[in-house]
Amino acid sequence: MLKTLALPLLVLALAAPGVHAETAPASQNPVDPASVQALKDMGAYLRAMKRYSISTELTGERVLADGQKLQHAAAAELDVVPPHHLRARIHNARAQREIYYDGKTVTLYAPQQKYYSSVEFSDPLSVLVAKLEERYGVEIPLYDLFTWGTPAAALDKIESAMNAGQDFIGDDLCDHYAFRQGDIDWQIWITAGTKPLPRKLVITNRADEARPQSVTLISWNLKPAFKDAAFTFTPPKGSTAVELRPLVRK
Predict the structure, then answer these.
(1) What residue range is the signal peptide (predicted)?
(2) What pLDDT tens digit does each residue of the chain (250 aa) get?
(3) Which domains are delineated in the chain?
């Protein structure tokens, strides 16, 4: 029950703005090695971080049967101490969800309904995000943050990669990269300099002729004030435990 309630807000995907054809570098090899290396450098930096908080704003599109697009928005805040601690709060105008992971137990909580589900886990975050999706259909917000810099990133599946120049995201000068993998075009803006943090992400779904996109902006706090107790879920008074059932595969 909780799983079903949580899903609409738990899917925060990659996103990025369009790449102008005139800025794309001409090359016989569509995969620019330097652009792929930029992802590797970013992943290595993310894996070396000790603790951080991020806030995100997501704008996505839903395509109706007649091709009309409806835009939706959501936001999330994450507190992280790699590799085994996470607290995520996800919300839009319709619902709120929270996720807690203390290295022993992961808990999903719906504060409006006061339902929660807990499952034992002991894996690092890079494994946790994959297992939650595979077993229960639950996606951790910005789950790619925990897989970049690990074998799960699957950079060998990139079919096209290019450097699309530089842009400011807020006050940060960022290097802009564009990639293609299967039916997905995605772009990323990475802070230029010694702290290569992702600041903006976009996905375009080319499998749908309407080309729906989702755009995510990420703000970073590298000196967060949260305490370790923030990752352990304590059921609020009046809350009810419900079972988080695995997906039924057909």
Answers:
(1) 1-21
(2) 222 223 333 333 323 333 333 444 444 459 999 999 999 999 999 999 999 999 999 999 999 999 999 999 999 999 999 999 999 999 988 889 999 999 999 999 999 999 999 999 999 999 999 999 999 988 888 989 999 999 888 898 999 999 999 999 999 999 999 999 999 999 999 999 999 999 999 999 999 999 999 999 999 999 999 999 999 999 999 999 999 888 876 6
(3) 2-20+29-63+71-241 (2.50.20.10)
Residues 226, 229: Cα–Cα separation, whole Å? 8
Beta bridge partners of 61: 71
200 with 215: CB under 8 angstroms? Answer: yes
Give alpha helix (H) positions in the chain: 2-10, 33-48, 125-136
Residues 6+ apart with CB under 8 A from 3: 108, 117, 136, 137, 138, 244, 245
| Closest CA relative to residue 243, chosen from 141, 100, 108 | 108
pTM to 2 decimals? 0.85
